[in-house]
Write a structure and sequence with these properties.
About 30% of the residues lie in helices and about 30% in strands. The chain contains four helices and seven strands.
């Protein structure tokens, strides 16, 4: 069922932090989709997101279904002016267009600010995410082999992908 019509894609507000943190914790607990695993410093993440929302320098965009945060995309400027992002979608809301809507919002955000490219790292086994990115003009630029070490001792590769942002 496509439930995109019930989803609002918007910049995060201070009151969204608890929902974003709960979503982040749930996805981390799955142990497959993001680099962060259970046991992370929740207060550090909370402070970082609060500071970023207050400053407006980076972007934290959420997918909200009423008061529930069901997705988030976190864009930040890194070294040499490169912008990277991470995205989360609640397990029960995957394959319903939430990730596509968040990615579309991130591209619009980047274009408005003159960002020339977006980059991300994704695990090779996350085939659905890779397909989403490739369908949105992201290309694989490199594979970082055997990084990072997981809590269970496994070491996974990371596929680096990038999309150039056309300015209009």
């Amino acid at each position: 069922m496509d439930r995109r019509s019930t989803i609002a894609i918007r910049p995060a507000r201070g009151k969204d932090i608890d929902g974003v943190l709960a979503l982040f914790e749930a996805v981390a607990a799955e142990g497959r989709w993001i680099g962060t695993e259970p046991g992370f410093d929740k207060d550090r993440y909370r402070r970082s997101w609060e500071e970023r929302i207050a400053s407006g320098s980076d972007a934290l965009i959420v997918a909200a279904d009423a008061d529930d945060i069901v997705g988030a995309i976190d864009l930040r400027e890194g070294e040499r002016g490169l912008w990277s992002f991470g995205m989360l979608v609640a397990p029960e809301r995957r394959r319903q267009g939430v990730g596509t809507a968040l990615l579309d919002a991130a591209i619009v955000w980047a274009r408005k600010r003159g960002v020339r490219a977006l980059t991300l790292g994704v695990f090779p086994h996350n085939e659905a995410a890779i397909r989403l990115y490739e369908n949105n003009e992201f290309v694989r630029t490199e594979v970082v082999e055997r990084s990072p070490r997981r809590q269970n001792g496994e070491i996974w590769d990371i596929v680096i992908m990038e999309r150039r942002i056309e300015t209009r």
